[in-house]
Design goal:
It is a single chain. The chain is mainly alpha-helical and about 500 residues long. About 50% of the residues lie in helices and about 0% in strands.
Length: about 500
Amino acid sequence: MSDSLRELWLRGIAFNAGAPADVLIRLLDETAGEAGLLMCEGRDLPDAVIDAALRHPDERIRRALARNLHVDPARLAPLASDPSGLVRAYLAGGTRTQLQPRWVRPLPNDILVTFLTAQEGGEDGRLTEKEIVGELWSSRQVPLSFPRDMAGHDHPALRLYAAFQWQSLTAAQHHALLDDPDPTVREAARKGSRQLDPEAVEAELPPIGSRHAVYVLSTCALSPAVVEQCFANDEVHPLARNRHTPANALARLARHPDAEIRRLIATRPDLGPEAAELRQDPDEDVRMRARLQPSIRTWTEFQEVQKVVDHGLDCTCPITQPATEPSPDWYAACAASEEPVLRRVAASWPGLPAELVGTLALDDDEGVRIRLACHHPLAPPQLLLDIFVTRPAHRPHLLTLPTFPRTGQAHLIGHPDPEVRALAAADPALPEPPLEDPDDAVRRAAAANPTLTPDALETLLTDLRAAEGAAANPSLPVPRMHALLDHCLNGAATPPTAARR
């Protein structure tokens, strides 16, 4: 057996959907090399395999498991207090960018609490607790509702965290934190409250043009003097984004010579008479956005529209759960709107009722159909398949959806795109998987087709072009999987083939 075949067999078995726990546990052995690490990170795992990986002595196995987004995150809770700081950091940081699915899975509150209250970064001393928390903040795994959940927590470190997220809290939580028994929390709350005090913001304003000034001008309540400074220095982009920008400044921004500024404010729910002016704007994009504005009554609705209006048909931005959602009635009104952007917004809401899903699945606007396919659990399987074929950018995401169709694709076997042919090659209803296709990925998919017999798999297992697919085939008998692992991991003689047994 060549080293190449060995690696192909190991990788194939690692991702074989029919492999039982006792087979997969063997891949945790150091001699399995990269295959075991890829398995721990890249697929759903039986409970017994998760348990074995959680207590595995090899830190690399635990690190790989920490990045697994297919496993219920509650099962990964022990890794938040792992002896290795690197394991903790991998869990805090989430999966690698190239493997990141569009649906961002938040970590459970108990794991977040463990990270935020840790007093050290692990027994190995390679990272500090602050460095690990830094990984957490950049991972998108903290739900937007978390600050509100923590504002009344018993642990002062978590109330302190909530105080730093001042503008996401309720008025009652503001009052409670300003009167907190812990002096550090009280001081953070006092500083947070100053974000909504225009005079305090003016007194502490960093130099306009600095990065910190942009943040302040984009988020804090501003005095008339600060607003005038922004106009004088042509630093008005932050004003256009700031919810606290006063009405008179918005009126000026509506007439700004830069169309980009007018676009930024055109959908704001707090626009006055200038909204009507923008619907006559010389810029087509400004006019379109201004037409949406009457349908946007709250900042929550504004945020949902912004997720759509600035993005094209091939947008693959992460999909996150908002802290609060607009009402179902608002989404229903969007679904019936004459404006395609609002229908796209409705199609992006996973809670849209089935009857509206059926209507939007037939929408004339391709963007509506794409959004529905990528966001809604009731999107028709045929729509998912159509988008897969026509929009390559969405293929990785669509393949993660449980409703994506796996059969009925024989008509695609001659498609010019090899990615589409590979999908069709895996169809278990296919009479003859295309094992001689010129593309490697198509041959691997064909070799993994469960319709192949054990006899056919034996031949493919010795073919470098198809061995990985054959080893990943769920029809491969479990004793044969063990025999291959015996040979790969223990150097045992190649066992008799299934055909000769």
